[in-house]
Each structure stands twice: as C-alpha cells, then as structure tokens.
Amino acid sequence: xxxxxxxxxxxxxxxxxxxxxxxxxxxxxxxxxxxxxxxxxxxxxxxxxxxxxxxxxxxxxxxxxxxxxxxxxxxxxxxxxxxxxxxxxxxxxxxxxxxxxxxxxxxxxxxxxxxxxxxxxxxxxxxxxxxxxxxxxxxxxxxxxxxxxxxxxxxxxxxxxxxxxxxxxxxxxxxxxxxxxxxxxxxxxxxxxxxxxxxxxxxxxxxxxxxxxxxxxxxxxxxxxxxxxxxxxxxxxxxxxxxxxxxxxxxxxxxxxxxxxxxxxxxxxxxxxxxxxxxxxxxxxxxxxxxxxxxxxxxxxxxxxxxxxxxxxxxxxxxxxxxxxxxxxxxxxxxxxxxxxxxxxxxxxxxxxxxxxxxxxxxxxxxxxxxxxx
Length: 374
Prior knowledge:
By secondary structure, this protein is of the alpha/beta class. It has two domains: 219 residues, Glycogen Phosphorylase B (Rossmann fold, 3-Layer(aba) Sandwich); 140 residues, Rossmann fold, CATH 3.40.50. 43% of the residues lie in helices and 18% in strands. It has 18 helices and 16 strands. The strands form three sheets. Strands 3-2-1-6-7-8-9 form a seven-stranded parallel beta sheet, with helices on both faces. It has a seven-stranded mixed beta sheet with strand order 12-13-11-10-14-15-16, with helices on both faces. Strands 4-5 form a two-stranded antiparallel ribbon. The longest helix has 17 residues. It is globular, with a radius of gyration of 20 Å.
C-alpha cells in the first residue's frame, strides 16, 4: 500500500477541510496526518470512519488578536517565539517518526515542519495551499493599500515552505501571475465528497460563519434584518430571535450550506470556494486586520460572484442590497465556478504513480457544481 504523509496549518478550518478532501481521495493509500493540536478533535471526529488514516498531533503557529478582535501581526510574531525556540527539537522528533513511516509522497498545506523534514530525507513533496498566491500574484493588480502590505509580507511565505518539488495554489479565483512564477500552478478549491452528495437547494435561511467571537455590531444588524440566520463559530448555542447559533459540526454545517439562501462569512478562501461550488452567493466580511482575507474579498467583489464589505459597513441596508442581487450572483456563479479536484489529481499522478488508483475517488467531486441545482 502506498504511503503518504500530510501536514497542515492549524489557523482556521479551511486547511483541515482541504486535507479532508485529500483523505477521501486517497483511500487506497496509508495516510499519516500531522495534525495541529487545536484541530485534533475536529479531525478525529471527521476521520472516525477512515481506517487508512493515522493522526499525530503536532504544535502549530496561530494568529493572535487584540482586545477588539483585530488580527495583530505583532502579537502573532511574539507568540511564535516559543515555537521557534523549540523548533529544532520538534524537527528531530518528527524526523524519526517520518523516517520510520517511510512515505512515498509528502503533501504540505502551509505548515513549516514537514517540508524541512522531507527536504532532509529526500522525500518528494507537494505544496498545496492558498497562501502561496502571495508569492505568485502580480501585485500591480491590487489597490495600492493592499499592494504595499503584500510587498511587505511576501517574503514570509518562503519561511513556511522553503522547499517543495511542486506548488499548487488552491483558490476560488484566478489571479494574474508575475513573471518568473511558472513553478506555481493555480487550481480551484478542493470539494469534500459529502458536499457533492447533498442536493443544493435555495432555502430560506442565511448561513453565517465567523471565526472569532468578537464579530462586532454587524450581528445585531442581521437581527434587525429579520431573516432566519444560522450562525456557526461563536461558541454558543440556542436562539436569539431570528438568529440560531450552532456548535461547529462538519456534517451539520455542510447540510446547512447546501440548503441555505446565501453565505455571509469572513473571507476565508476554502469556505467561499465551497459555497460557490454549490451555487451559493457570498457576502464576505474580512476580519479586521486580516490581510489575506482582504485580498480574498477584493477578488470576490471583482469576480462578480459576491460582495465584500468591511465590518464597519456591514449594515442592515447593505445586507438587504446584497439579498436583492442574489439572482444576478447565481447566474454568474453558474457560468464561472470551478473546482480543483481533477487538477490536483493530475499533479499527484505526475509525482506519485501509485495514486492512479485514487482517480475514481477524487473524480467523484470534480464536476460537483455541474450537477448542483442552485
């Protein structure tokens, strides 16, 4: 049986969702998943019926936020100091584990330990994430305020994945690449098979996903809107007038996504791509200070598949304007949305001949949107 080791970032559930799609695709292989400690429970619940998967908890780097819920890069850097101080020890321990597993292929989703280990051991490595868009993007296409920050942060991408034999950038949008980046290939968002097994219907509820408890005043604006809203990510349960709060559950969330009227969310790449794949227009509200989400929101707005608002502008009036335009967004989604499952499969086949047997699994979701009924 072929052996594959996979690692992923612990910052947000988008990385975990992408890895879950790989787990489903590679059922003919033995998988060793280096799982961030804060994602371990979620992954254990999501892979309990996947006997080919073994999970190993590892330390990870995570964002830090200020008292007002704004992402702080300064605090995030300071919080990384203990990780960096122990990094040699982490690498030494994990190198022994990976060497014993003896994988044929490694797949890295913006996680800094595994690519350093595979480089040392000479293991073929595929980088599959969204964040490397920053390394390949032609920054001249961005508004100047985003361009300046992108120039500043671009060098940090190499620190997370200094070595890989191939780079795939999974994104819900196509972006213009700068010269000299032909080693970076753009693919669509990977879609989990359970999302393709549910019929996509236009229901009454608005699906809302937030990554942090401090969402600001715009949740109150949703209450004033009066429409039924199902909300995830707020560490609470129960009903507050038209707002229904639910705990994080992968299966329940997918059911609510397939049956919602639209998605209102922070601007994470993976979730936006999943929503568009089942024909759901997206209103993105990037986290304050989150540079990557601001760029995602820019390209979402520019694509015409949804709209982007800053938290300060997320008012009842803007929500109503977005809902009025849903038919237009749905028509555009039908014409433009793509998924990346087939493209990722092709790359894995090129790097790893044993993966030919996974074609049937990965191909099942590749034409997901074509079969959806928005």
